[in-house]
Design brief:
The protein is mostly helical. It has helices at about 10-75, 75-85, 120-125, 125-205, and strands at about 90-95, 95-100, 100-105, 105-110. It has a single domain, classed as Helix Hairpins.
Length: about 210
Amino acid sequence: MPGQNQRPSTKAELVRLKAELKVARDGVGLLERKRDLLMAEGIARLREARAQRRALTADWETLWMHWEAARKQAHSARLGQLAARVAPLNRVADHSHPWMSTRRAAFQLTPHELDLLGTPSEVGIAPEQVRGELKSLLPPLLELMALETNVRRIAVALKRCHRQVNALNRVVIPELSAQRRRVEQRLEEKEREAIFQVKRLKARSQ
């Protein structure tokens, strides 16, 4: 190892190196358990999101067919003019909260009554029915959005955890181990030198 990175060859430094090695190895164990938990949670949320997306896709296709039928009954341009006057939906509130090393997503839309596009004579009943169906789909859509956001966040946390484990196993622990061996060897050399000096002094005094 480069000299600038070498630790002093003292017993106190050897104790510190052993303590740092223990912390690093314990850290690997904790990170590996964390990685397993993230993996299990990510797989569970991914399966749940896939099932919910399939169900919502079927509901959305039904809604789209109803909307196309409603457009045929009413004039599209007139529907657009009336829709432009309707108040927009409330903003989606983000209630994400910390979970392990990431944030668990949770979205909420404050419910409110939909304003009518117009009178039944202007637009008919079908567009309002479609809007009602769309309103009922908003909560599961938000839930799906939260699920898929959590899957992405867990994937990022999992990659970060994997990099940390690799850094400890491939860089930090090998470097600390090498430093410990070097200090131990240097201390053994010093001890042998001291013993040799003592023996030589005894030989001179006799």
